[in-house]
Each structure stands twice: as C-alpha cells, then as structure tokens.
Amino acid sequence: MSDLMKVIIGITIPFFGTTLGAAMVFLMKDELNVRLQKALLGFASGVMIAASVWSLLIPAIDMAESAGDIAWLPALVGFLAGIFFLLLLDMIIPHLHMGSDSPEGRPSGITKSMLLVLAVTLHNIPEGMAVGVVMAGMLSGESVITTAGAFALAIGIAIQNFPEGAIISMPIVGTGFSKKKAFGYGFLSGVVEPVAAVVTILLTSMISSVLPYMLAFAAGAMIYVVIEELIPEAQAGEHSNIGTIGAALGFALMMVLDVALG
Hints:
Layout: H1 3-22, H2 34-66, H3 73-92, H4 112-140, H5 147-174, H6 179-206, H7 211-235, H8 240-261
Helix pairs in contact: 1-4, 1-5, 1-6, 2-3, 2-5, 2-7, 2-8, 3-7, 4-5, 4-6, 4-7, 5-6, 5-8
C-alpha cells in the first residue's frame, strides 16, 4: 500500500466514526439515556488523555531527545501553545455545550442546534490535527512513529467519535429538525477532522523540525477539550461515577491500542 493511500485511509477513519455515530439517529427513537451519555463522554475523555500521552507527548519527547535537543522543551512549548490555541477558538467561535442554555464565544444569532454542532466541531479540530501530525511523522520516517502506531491513534479517535456523533445528532432531532437534517449536521461536524488533518500534514511537511512541537500542540489542544468540555459534562449532576468508569475504560483501551500496535 502506498504512503498516500495510508494517509487517506488514516485521516478518513475518525471521520467514519463520527458519521456512523450520527447515523444512529435513524435507529434510535429517543435521546441517549443520561447515564449512557455520561459513560460515553467519560470514555471519550479517557481515550483522548491516553492518546495525548502515548501517541503525542511521549513521541515528541523521544524525537527531541534523539535529535540532541532539550527533551522536554518541544513538548512543553507545543503543549501550552495547543492549550492557548483552543482557548482562543473557544473565546471566538460561538457554540453551546450540551446541558447548557448559555452560549459561549462571540454573541451571534445562530440557532441552538447549530451552536451544538459548532461545539462538537470545535473539539473535532484537535482530533483531526492529532491524526494529521502522526501521519506526518509516519511519512517522515521517524522511528518513534510507526504505521501501526499512527493507525492505532486514528482507530482510537474513531471509536470515541462514534458516541459523539450520536450524542450530537439526537438532541438536534429534539429541537424539531428531521432525522435526515440531524444526521447532516452530525456529518458536517466531522468534516473538520480530515480538513484539519490535511492542513497539519502540509504544515509539518514544510518544516520537518517542527514535528515534535506539532505533536505536543495537538496533545495540548485535545487536553483542553477534555478538561473544558468532556469531563465537566460527564461529571455534571448525579451518577458522576459512571463518567469516571467510562474515562478509565477509554484510557485503558487507548493505552493498550497504542502500546500493542505502536
């Protein structure tokens, strides 16, 4: 299989997960049970935390060390840059978190359903960047990022994208939209992932020395999403322990995928 085909498949896998999850709107009559939502949100948190550590930060440190640079510097700079990048997007892009009636970002006249879609789209950006940067690492021939490791990250993100697709599509039906339109919104929220992946690959390929920084940048962006959105939603109200268990399972699964396949 050519490198180009590997990249195309790799950046498509997470998008497929979101699309498949959004398609659940045609099979389900009601919104997901609150406890199930908490479990799935926690699961997504665990996957993203583990992916940030094993697939992004550790390779960034290893690359810097093998290049004779200060091992922790690219990881630190890139991680904090990713955090502040998502903070900036969070402040600018209007969006609405699930279970909230107060939109965040700049004031706008956008409908509630679209604000929900924008919230998911916002945190799909770092996921796309993460897949893009490991694919760039794979293409660069860096020994710390193998083809199996890159695909392990893509598969892990796709697994946690599946419930996210369902979680975003079902509430949109509740706002009065048809199931077809709700699926369309869920589908569109995932389009940003392959786009972000392609942009990241192009940027990284121009300056190969920036790869460790970009790995850590994607990690910081994903951790921001976890702390700002996923964990608070999984822990809100009763049955917060369900979200905690989901996070533990998600973390364990992603860790095993990365170590076993990487």
